[in-house]
Amino acid sequence: MTVFFTYSFISVISFSESDGNKTQVTEFVLTGLTDCPGLQVPLFLVFLVIYLTTMVGNLGLIFLIWKDPHLHTPMYLLLGSLAFADACSSSSVTPRMLMNFLSNNHMISLVECITQFYIFASSANTECFLLVVMAYDRYVAICNPLLYPVVMSNIFCIQLLSVSYIIGFLHPMLHVSLLFRLTFCKSNVIHYFYCEILQLFKISCTDPRVNMLLIFIFSVFIQSFTFMTIIISYSYVLFTILKKKSEKGRSKAFSTCSAHLLSVSLFYGTLFFMYVCPGSGRAENQDKMYSVFYTIIIPLLNPFIYSLRNQEVIGALRRIINT
């Protein structure tokens, strides 16, 4: 623990201004999930297994979709893109957290900190729009099956994917650029396991209300717009499924859509509590649990949610194993 505070002290440098001497933080200390020494190794092992499983699940799904011609359809192209976003999201946070479990040096530079936030935020934003495109894909496939090959062509699907990634990666640039208006001189200790933007606001010497207002406005707009679009799409899908006379058709449609809705509920539920309802009197550990869920657990669950009950994916896996 002495080493921890020594690093904390060294990372703050002094400089002179017209209104007196101030200190400017150039590096931060991430305290992690817990400061209990006895839990560091067990938590390292738990999250190492989770991370490896996440990578195998998501990258394995991407490989399966790429390798099997039967899965070269818009639905699985979208699913592969979601798996890629999940892999990026988890990789932006978990490796650094794993290193900190076994190291006394929890330092992260300002540039590394902002880069970590940008990669995670871009992945999460992209996932919001990918889930909308996936909902639209299911809407067309189930409500207008005869038009599906025309409407959801591979070219149009790639265009939708491109728009999702462009918006997903451009939007966080606004918040990153606004981070540079802040100065950090109060403390360099971030009581978190990664560089979460709301935690940076807490240690800012500059008033972060403009940043917080824009985070709230964009979060409400993006999450509300994408979530309502998804709900409307699946409402139409549900009504169409209930009208189907074929029991087999209903069962297959319900299986696909229930997996999508479960993933949507987990993702939007945690994001809503973190960024639409911030500072609502929650304990710090509760915020950490929300963050662990959407940064680490959801990327772990998604490939299994979408694959375990999907006979086409299971069939593709069997064909790959048997070749």
Summarize this entry quickly:
With 323 residues, the protein is mainly alpha-helical.
Which terms would index this structure?
3-stranded mixed beta sheet; 11 helices; mainly alpha; single chain; Rhopdopsin 7-helix transmembrane proteins; 323 residues
Tell me what you see in this structure.
The protein is mainly alpha-helical. Helix 2 packs parallel to helix 10 (about 285-305), helix 3 packs antiparallel against helix 10 and helix 4 runs parallel beside helix 8 (about 210-245). It has one domain (about 1-10, about 30-320): Rhopdopsin 7-helix transmembrane proteins. The termini are far apart. A three-stranded mixed sheet has the order 4-3-5. The chain is built from eleven helices and five strands, in the order H-E-E-E-H-H-E-H-H-H-E-H-H-H-H-H. Strand 1 and strand 2 (about 20-25) form a beta hairpin. The chain has helices spanning about 1-10, 35-65, 75-100, 110-145, 150, 155-180, 195-200, 210-245, 245-275, 285-305, 310-320; strands at about 10-15, 20-25, 25-30, 105-110, 190. Mean pLDDT is about 85; it is low at about 1-20.
What's the helix and strand layout?
Elements: H1 2-10, E1 12-17, E2 20-25, E3 27-30, H2 37-67, H3 74-102, E4 107-109, H4 110-143, H5 148-151, H6 154-179, E5 189-190, H7 197-202, H8 209-243, H9 247-276, H10 284-307, H11 311-322
What amount of the residues lies in strands?
5-15%
- CATH T-level topology: Rhopdopsin 7-helix transmembrane proteins
Task: Sum up the overall morphology in one term.
Answer: globular
Helix content: over 70%
Radius of gyration: 22 Å
The CATH level-2 architecture is identified as Up-down Bundle
> So, the CATH homologous superfamily?
Rhodopsin 7-helix transmembrane proteins
Poorly predicted regions: 1-21
